[in-house]
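Thought: the user asked what phosphopantothenoylcysteine decarboxylase looks like in 3D. I have the sequence; next I should run the structure tool and report back without guessing.
Action: structure_tool
Action Input:
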Amino acid sequence: MASELMAIENEPQPINAGLPRKPRILLAASGSVAAMKFANLCRTFAEWAEIKAVATKASLHFIDKASLPNGLVLYTDEDEWSSWKQIGDSVLHIELRRWADIMVIAPLSANTLAKISMGLCDNLLTCIVRAWDYKKGLFVAPAMDTLMWTNSFMEKHLTDVDDLGIVLIPPDTERSVCGERGKGAMAEPSDIDTAIRVFLEPPSSDSGSSNGMEEQS
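Observation:
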């Protein structure tokens, strides 16, 4: 992991040939059964973007590592600690934040949502969120049981993350793995992909500005 961390530090600057580089998307999964779709999500984004991935310990119960795109490194909490040895060494959650143009947490579990709402940062994923530069996009796609989604805590937690500038990709209504039908299922990877593509679309020509990735370092 040390060599991979150095690769983040030494990422080349955007090309200057008048063409935008690919967007850098940091994909993250927290501990929901919907993390079974995380490999599919990564493959979808890998078709058009540079991606790196982060997974919480709980999400690893559901992620099929063999189905992840070839060459993709899946960062975990252990990497956060093993990559730092002494003062002056790079800190993984800071380097990943610097590298990314956008972060997408999908699935976002009820537990991780509550942590973000309260400002907790006790693993790699939540440390990245706590250190995030909110001039850059951060999207979340919740996934949880319907009664978790309709719990009275939810309104407060969603208000808190909205105040931070985090963008919600709403859950779907369907039958969950628990056998209950209702709202709470994570949006499909294709829908998450579409939401990010729309966000990255350059503004209309009459706006006088550009949203091209070549403007970011």
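Thought: the tool returned a structure. Summarizing for the user.
Final Answer: Structure for phosphopantothenoylcysteine decarboxylase predicted. The CA atoms of residues 35 and 111 lie 14 Å apart. The beta strands are 24-29, 50-55, 74-75, 102-108, 137-142, 167-168, 172-175, 181-185.
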